[in-house]
Amino acid sequence: MHVPFLDLKAQYSALEKPIQDAVDRVLRSCAFASGPEVEAFEKMFAAYCESDHAVGVSSGTAALELLLRAHDIGPGDEVITVANTFFATAEAISLVGATPVLVDARESDALMDPARLDAAITKNTKAIIPVHLYGQPADMDAVLDVAKASDILVIEDSCQAHGARYKGSRAGSLADAGAFSFYPGKNLGAYGEGGAVTTSNADIAERVRQLRDHGSPKKYEHAVIGRNDRMDELQGAILQVKLQHLDAWNEARRSHANSYRDRLEGHVALLEEQRDRESVYHLFIARVPNRESVQGALRDAGIATGIHYPIPIHLQPAYGGTDLGRFPVSEALASDILSLPMFPELTEEQISYVAETLRAVV
Ligand SMILES: Cc1ncc(COP(=O)(O)O)c(C=O)c1O
Is 0.85 surpassed by the pTM of this model? Predict the structure, then answer.
């Protein structure tokens, strides 16, 4: 049996007609830059995230960067995030000229450890970016408590958590603002690059709208130096179609995660899903000490896997890369995490085959 890590073609064949209609509509209009399709998607996505505003941008990285800039965060400022994340979380902080300050992840769920935040805060700290990694919201009450005590902004990196819930509320509505990525492999993926900011702060939404469009409040008038970080109309039209299916896709992912758990618990170490959260399982992670040989054996059995991520932020060459031992939990995770096949169209047969094969080789 062959089990791909991700199967975007299966999703496209189910939606071929409405997607082609949406693409055709944009091509016929010949309006390609941000316009009515993006606006319609923004309204839908804000409602979906239970947030007052959504602003479509060119990527998740742009969403993070523009949010930091909209809050005037820049050189001399520090922004706290977690060592176990995708590079772009820290990169966005560096892109605005601020300094990323890292804290370790925690063992149970591999997410930001809020117990480490107090020690990381200085007089220069302006924001905290918890990351809802793998689809599970971070421990937001604990993060927000620390932030409130020091009057610090909280931006959710929701790039892997479209539709996830924390105590009943959606990712992206839990703090001052949220940043989403629509990279094609995400739970809600564009057919190209894309991202969005969510916030219930009308001023910040307006600032992000200007910043994504050359700092322009109206055509050919430029209030500030911005960027060209607009979402394009093709992505806006395609995402409107796909958003209607997101809840069903997330439900399928959650059901697959349960099947994996039923088959693997007691045999393979797994990350915990916390009681008060609803993860949308962008990724399903197992922890295997002999990862290289396990990954090889799975590959030989026709099963594709991934590693998210093999190098924690502080060990990335771009950040010096020499601080080994500084964040032991993130380093341990980087050395033994393995992402198993996870996508809505995965079948029970495939899950059972992956789990049985993994149990035999771990
Ligand atoms: C946690 C996290 N943050 C930020 C990003 C950046 O998003 P994008 O690739 O759309 O720039 C990603 C996407 O890969 C991500 O997974």
Answer: yes
